[in-house]
Amino acid sequence: MKPIWVVDDDQSIRFVLEKALAREQFAVRAFANARDVLAALDDDEPQVLVSDIRMPGGSGLDLLAKIKQRLPGLPVIVMTAYSDLDSAVSAFQGGAFEYLAKPFDVAKAVELIRRAVEESLREAVASERPGDTPEMLGQASAMQDLFRAIGRLSQSHVTVLITGESGSGKELVAHALHKHSPRGESGTNGPFVAINTAAIPKDLLESELFGHERGAFTGAQTMRRGRFEQADGGTLFLDEIGDMPFDLQTRLLRVLSDGQFYRVGGHQPQKSNVRVIAATHQNLEQRVKDGAFREDLFHRLNVIRLRLPALRERPDDIPMLARQFLQKSAKDLGVDAKRLSDAALARLVGFGYPGNVRQLENICHWLTVMAPAQVVEVKDLPPELLEAASAASTPLVPPAGPAASAATATVAPVAAVAMAPVGGDWLNDLEREARALLDAGTPEVWEALTRQFEARLIVTALDATRGRRIEAAQRLGIGRNTITRKIQELGLDD
Length: 494
Prior knowledge:
The chain is of the alpha/beta class and 494 residues long. Helices cover 49% and strands 11% of the residues. It has 21 helices and 14 strands. It has helices at 11-23, 34-40, 60-70, 85-93, 106-128, 141-152, 170-179, 202-210, 227-230, 246-258, 284-289, 295-301, 318-333, 342-350, 356-370, 383-392, 402-419, 426-439, 445-464, 469-476, 480-489; strands at residues 4-7, 28-31, 48-52, 76-81, 98-102, 160-163, 192-196, 235-239, 260-261, 270-271, 275-280, 304-307, 339-340, 375-376. Strands 2-1-3-4-5 form a five-stranded parallel beta sheet, with helices on both faces. The chain has a five-stranded parallel beta sheet with strand order 7-8-11-6-12. A two-stranded antiparallel sheet has the order 9-10. Helix 2 packs parallel to helix 3 (60-70) and helix 14 (342-350) crosses helix 19. The two termini are 19 Å apart.
């Protein structure tokens, strides 16, 4: 690894940082002014640059601008007195990684530099990867099972039913199934046609699906091919199939049974070679019981079922997804990608996401546009995250009555710490989750639940300490190296 460069005209600052970084096994190179730094760049470059703002012979902001021209990916930490906070804002606008206010705590300075080093190493790895953005991301066991299922179905034409909450990415799964099938890029490269059956009025949906003949109804000036014909040789994705009107379900069943259909107002049967993938956020078995969905159509669609987990069920994936969405938004807008502080990332990981992955993507786009600095802090997060955290931190009121008082007296030390944040008996919740996973035959239940438990503990501690890892480790009762290792293993710093 390359050395850390420290630039400050104050010899005592250089000395303190050199010694502190050397104790942490970092190589260090110190400079007294910006001019020497620029000259040294001709032969060498740092892993991280730590620079004072006010120096004779050239300011730290000027140095930052010149450094960013030559090494745009280099993390730069600027040191500033409290009276220079306006300069710190200018530093962020110039692309600084973070600022360090003087006088500073040496341990906190080293921790910040360590974070910058980790960021630098991640950027170096990312730059070596192919430029294409993965179509789907997920390290959680449920997502890995989903990826394996898509792989097993890659040579199949079978009908698939995808279930999952709104915004969880069902269309992405459908597109991946098509892409990796004999009808997609690995085969005949047939079309992928999608239609949301809940978004189209009932009177128009039949025409959208099956097309219409000229004069079939008022306004039908020409013949129009429907989605089944448009998807010939490829895949038709029927999103929110649970909301399809009952009479159209009958027509859909007939098409799936014999491959034939009639355009609206038509008399000649049409044939289309289509693979159908359907998706819904609803419980179709219950819809069948309620008489709102045809049982025979349900069985026709439910040949292979894939369940897409909600985002709150895979918190380990949130840092990786947030990083990708921030990069995507920055690329779309032609700006530098924002970075999340540890505390802000902890707040993102702890959010419930009723809108799932789509909501996380929207939040990242909002941050790209609205966050004032390059590094996003907790105060920069959108209102729904801050309000949710405020509501979650409201203490629970213990139940009234003598029995309740006795119970409270017995378990008060545990309840105050463990139960208040989650608003219920978390051990019973854990037992129910473990039972459900075990009954479903999920592999590596211990590993999956342990990772979630450790990740939630760490992100909560980081949130409580505003991202200060050393303090978070102390309050959790673990070592500094342990929390750093766990953050890396759990993907919380991605």
